[in-house]
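Model it.
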Amino acid sequence: MPKTNKNIGSKNPRIWIAGIFVITLFGGYLYQQGSSPLNALANSPSPAEIEQGKKLFAQNCSSCHGVQGVGQNPESPNGGMLDEGGYLAPALNGTGHAWHHPNSVLFKTIKHGSIASDSSMRAFSNRLSDKEIVMIIHYFKSLWPDPIREKHSNLNKEEV
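Modeled.
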């Protein structure tokens, strides 16, 4: 019968190091899974995240909100009503009213669509991941002038 060592790894530091490494990786994975989109929106984005958000915005949002987020009608950045009913898509570049909404509302509106039944803003939950939605929001917030970003930051602090 082969002799078994009940203290496996007690004399081999490589096994301990490998075990600690695996536990650390698993812990990091669990931590990332628990991070919320709102936490991600509270952090400053990297230039790469803004650039990715710009690409995603161009692919998914610019047909309604315009290139550079100027809105469906740049003369009416807050949106407005269409002649045939429904709403014009507002500007997202800081000239419209989007910055008046906290991160939670911006995120929910993109993910789940507008609460207004006659709005053309539909849910993107089937097309965009939470991370992609966050990058899009980071992108259009990068278009806002500094005073608007500061006011929006204070709005989010009040919401917490």
